[in-house]
Amino acid sequence: MKRKITAYFLILIFVTAFLVGLSSYIITNHFYATRLKESMLTEINLLEKDSLFKEGDYETLVKKYAPTLNTRITLISNNGTVIYDSFKKIIESHANRPEFIAAKKNGTAFVERPSETTKETMYYAAKLSQNGTIIRFSRPKANVDETLLQIILPIILCILVSVIAAFVLSFWFSHSMIRPLSKIKEHMRENTGSLAISPLNTGSLHAEVLELACAYNDLIAKLNYQMEEIEKLQNIRSDFVANVSHELKTPLTSIRGFVETLKNGAIYKEDVAMRFLNIIDIEANRLQSLISDILFLSKIEKMEMDMDKELFSLTNLTTEIIEIITPQATERNITIYFTPNQDILMWADASKIKQLILNLLSNAIKYNKDCGKIFVQESRLDERHVTIAISDNGIGMDKEDLERIFERFYCVDKGRSQKNGGTGLGLSIVKHIANLYDGKVNVESEPGKGSAFTVTLCVDGDGKKED
User: Fold this and answer.
1) Pick from 379, 356, 334, 330: nearest CA to 429
2) Which of 6, 195, 353, 358 is most open to solvent, judged by the fewest CB atoms within 10 Å of its CB?
3) pTM for the structure as a whole
4) How does pLDDT run across 341-357, given as a tens digit for each residue?
5) Residue 273 is part of which domain span?
């Protein structure tokens, strides 16, 4: 039995080592190819922004960048004719090259294939510029393979060392595992034929059995927890799919109903047709808003941190948002008060912060009363923290609503939300944007007296970037 267990362990070790080595190579190769693609497209963007490219001085441009970037640069016209190439002066049409075709169709392309000129396997990155010219970079795959080899060799060495260590450990483990069973076997052999069997000394066995049982129970506890988490995620996914289906079905049913009515003759009644078309337009806009919010929420939920940052004035951004949303507030004689005490600078994605403020202001208008008031305040707590506070004197919320308002598709007043084109995702988006900046959202509300939302974000400002 000892030999079998040792053999099983060895087979497991070698299979695991093989799979680890293979997966390491695949993952590393994919990682480098992805990074190379990003790098080459970034370099193409750099070249495209150069004034020489805009002036059409392609020869000077290519001579400037080709040696620096250590890459072959090819400029191709929209019909496939090569305008300039850093490798050859005269070159045939590239209209049938895969990267040329893909770039014309998708805007950018990244292809691995043998070169028509050198027969060497190359990586090609191409981009369709605004003036119609295709910018193509190419680099030998051999360079990447050399880099991968430098990484894979230490990994293989580590795997070999691990295999040897695992072999020694497996031998020791199989011995220690068989020893208690051997004692039982020996005890039975010694007592074969005896009229009175002496009790087995379990002193040396008890701790090992107990340890195994504890490890097994720990494993069960972890598996049960994971199953609960999986079930919870499945329930969340099911609820989300059901809610999305319902929210999409409502406007689609309305649109199809009015279209069917128009087809059945209502289109010839101008006043009725115009009213139906206006309703269809409203439902279509609602559908578009819903899909946009779902896609945006799905995107930020996958992000662990925001990389698209820039230095901007939060004060100026808020002023612009208020100007955009003021007509919506004016329709109900709602006044927005915003008197900044200082110009607050911050490093963040301005578009996401704009979405956060816009969602809060939209809710403050939707759930306000006619001739109501909205107050906007912003302040910098310290070098890394900014607060955005938006309050109103509208309808307010009950305590049970406060516990659920950040859930997807939850609406305090369903009728009012649909009437104003709400999707039920606005506050969920606000929460996820705040989480993206290690922030939090606090809300205080009382029915009939209004609501106050305070968002605290962890961002740098005053001209300083985050570490």
Assistant:
1) 356
2) 195
3) 0.43
4) 888 898 888 888 998 99
5) 203-302
